[in-house]
TrEMBL record, chain A:
One of its GO terms (molecular function) is ABC-type transporter activity. The keyword Transferase does not apply. One of its GO terms (cellular component) is plasma membrane. The chain crosses the membrane at residues 21-39, 73-90, 111-137, 149-171, 178-195, 226-245. It comes from Lacticaseibacillus chiayiensis. This is ABC transporter permease. Keywords: Membrane, Transmembrane, Transmembrane helix. The keyword Membrane applies. It holds the Pfam family ABC2_membrane_2.
Length: 253, 82
């Protein structure tokens, strides 16, 4: 276990020194501020865009702000995250930076454990800081009672991150370059979106974790409705991490 | 006030009004974007080698394209240190 702790420390230091942590934080904070701002500006933009035509634009509510937040997180945030972590493992294999550590007795599985742990921390930190930003602005600018389950709606997003990370790590190991891992991740997410069309699978599809957040927020759906998807996501993620360890064991460093 | 006058006044004050209304959003946004830009500019100047492009190219991208420019540099432009 000490090996995993050591590698986790190394991984953390790397995230810090390569500015990965800093860039992700800044970008997600920007997303967090942009979400309520977009909600606030949208009626004005609509009016401006239509010129003199008068239409009834409803006053924005906290729901618009949260809709923007989940849109930003799931349509931009996860891809920025994937871009920044694209060469998460492949880069180390390419540059041979693991050779020294492994030949000195670092078990290969600790590489994956360390990377998974730091990646998860990064994800939680990113979506969390954006969440706090959006929450603060929303509470101040849209003080209504339309979004009662703010924290509950956020939980599935964090769990989806765990799954997303496992896909990213496996993709990064399978591919021999930085962009192969990205491509793998995008393809998996696209396939999951397509699988949404299959009626019976919807409850088990991890994509529900990032598409049904608004329903939970307003209280239309209980969080318990997403249990199957959450369990599937976690089990799949553990399976993918296990596969990643197996692949890395066979891989020539 | 006639319609024409109002429009003129509106145009004059529009930018300022937007700022006074939305400054709690805009000030942190500007600080964050400038911070990201500065971090990228410092990196570009400190490291003479790039995976693609050259220094002038990356400086233009990083300074003139907000948010996406610096991310593009950190992801595609930065040469990994061996």
């Amino acid at each position: 276990m000490t090996a995993a702790v050591i590698f986790t420390k190394k991984e953390w230091l790397e995230s810090w020194r390569t500015h990965r942590f800093l860039i992700l934080t800044v970008v997600f904070l920007i997303f967090g501020i942009l979400s309520p701002l977009m909600a606030k500006l949208l009626p004005a933009l609509l009016k401006g865009g239509l010129g003199g035509v008068k239409i009834a634009v409803p006053t924005p509510t906290s729901l618009d702000s949260w809709t923007q937040y989940y849109k930003n997180m799931t349509q931009m945030g996860i891809y920025v995250f994937a871009l920044m972590l694209g060469g998460y493992v492949s880069q180390e294999i390419q540059q041979g930076t693991l050779v020294n550590l492994v030949t000195k007795g670092l078990p290969r599985w600790s590489v994956i454990i360390g990377k998974a742990f730091v990646g998860l921390l990064l994800w939680f930190w990113c979506v969390g800081s954006a969440f706090v930003m959006t929450w603060a602005y929303t509470a101040y600018y849209f003080p209504d009672t339309r979004s009662p389950h703010v924290v509950l709606a956020f939980v599935p997003l964090v769990i989806f991150g765990f799954f997303f990370l496992s896909v990213l790590v496996l993709g990064s190991i399978l591919a021999s370059n930085n962009y192969g891992g990205l491509l793998f991740t995008v393809v998996v997410v696209a396939l999951l979106y397509m699988a949404r069309m299959v009626k019976g699978w919807q409850h088990f599809n991890p994509i529900s974790l990032i598409s049904d957040n608004m329903k939970i927020l307003v209280g239309a759906d209980a969080l318990t409705k997403l249990w199957p998807a959450m369990v599937t996501a976690v089990v799949l993620a553990l399976g993918l991490f296990w596969a990643a360890i197996k692949v890395l064991d066979q891989k020539k460093l | 006030m006639t319609c024409a006058n109002f429009e003129e006044l509106d145009n004059m004050n529009a930018n300022w009004e937007v700022f006074t209304t939305y400054w709690p959003f805009l000030v942190p946004l500007i600080i964050l974007e400038l911070g990201l830009m500065l971090a990228a500019v410092i990196q570009v100047l400190r490291h003479p080698h790039y995976r693609i492009g050259n220094r002038a190219f990356w400086l233009v991208i990083v300074i003139f394209i907000q948010i996406i420019g610096p991310i593009a540099y950190f992801v595609f432009g930065r040469e990994d240190q061996q």
